[in-house]
Amino acid sequence: MGPVASDSRPDPGKPYDDGPVAALRRIAFLLERSRAETYKVKAFRSAAATILTLAPDDVAARASSGTLRDLPGIGASTAEVIEAAAAGRVPERLAKLEAETGGPLVEGGERVRAALRGDLHSHSDWSDGGSPIEEMAFTAMELGHEYLVLTDHSPRLKVANGLSVARLTRQLEIVEAINEHLGGGAEESTFTLLKGIEVDILDDGSLDQTEEMLARLDLRVASVHSKLAMDRGPMTRRMVAAVQNPFTNVLGHCTGRLVTGNRGKRGQSEFDAAEVFAACVENDVAVEINARPERRDPPTRLLEQAIEAGCLFSIDSDAHAPGQLDFQVYGCARAQELGLEPERIVNTWPRQRLVSWAESKILG
Predict the structure, then answer these.
(1) Cα 4 → chain centroid
(2) Block mean pLDDT (10 aa), the chain, length 364
(3) What are the start-end ranges of the E strands in the chain?
(4) CB 293 within 8 Å of CB 96
(5) How far apart, in whole angstroms, are the C-alpha atoms of residue 229 and residue 151?
(6) Quick check: 220 and 168 in contact, CB under 8 A?
């Protein structure tokens, strides 16, 4: 059983043949998509990483002899899961989570979600995400994505461990290695991890990365992360300047608001939405529908205004953990409710069309 949400619920009394690693990953996925505390998730992902290096017979032998907890990263709760899965039983923790959190996250949005081919905004443990790049990629594949854009933060966002030129250069090598392992991405049907960035929009509207590095990427999400309470006039000029930059493809979480969650609430930035959205249309920049439950950005009124203005959109999870990739459905429900046609959502496009669109601004 992979991380994909399912309407079926495993019965602890029935056989289970997916193995301990799959059980641990599924538990972690379900905890992440239900927004559980990070420390609860980490135990299961750490345990999966530990036993992934062992032969199945070794895992089974340790499970039967009760020595799993001698291994690093294996505690009482994770050992119980491994022992049940190794014995071919559905772990009780897995069955309980499936029953409580394994169903649909939201009603509606199915038509839009079915049209999506990928996700343009995701983070790994290279910046402020919680999992390795490859785990994000594998989970995206299991969710049915054809592509995932890796968009770790840019240098100035030090609190999020933003990537310097040197670190981003190294990350691009890792992305290429993963794609080579997955088949090179030569065919449209092959899953591809795309090179990207969530680049900070600086106070004057410039982007927080060198043009040389931005040019090496497949797609760029530009977001405001600082001075969110800037006066309306300067904020409008700042955002328009960023949208006019030929390297900007997606305007990320445009108001910066927080409506719920453990980070508290935060009001939205003030700007001339008509001017900003007109600039997006003129410069062929997509407005992000950020699907994180704590953001719901843009607010409905602004989202309706952007739709009426003729903007393109991307519906993104802004995932900081593999299970959060499933957050896209929240944005899909909002888009479908407002009658947004899938053709105007750029991540419904095939990969080559998406990449060509993003590249066209640079080439002029």
Answers:
(1) 14
(2) 48 81 97 92 96 95 96 96 96 96 96 98 96 97 97 96 97 97 72 98 98 98 97 98 98 97 91 98 98 97 98 98 98 98 98 97 84
(3) 118-119, 147-150, 192-200, 219-223, 250-251, 286-290, 312-316
(4) no
(5) 24
(6) no
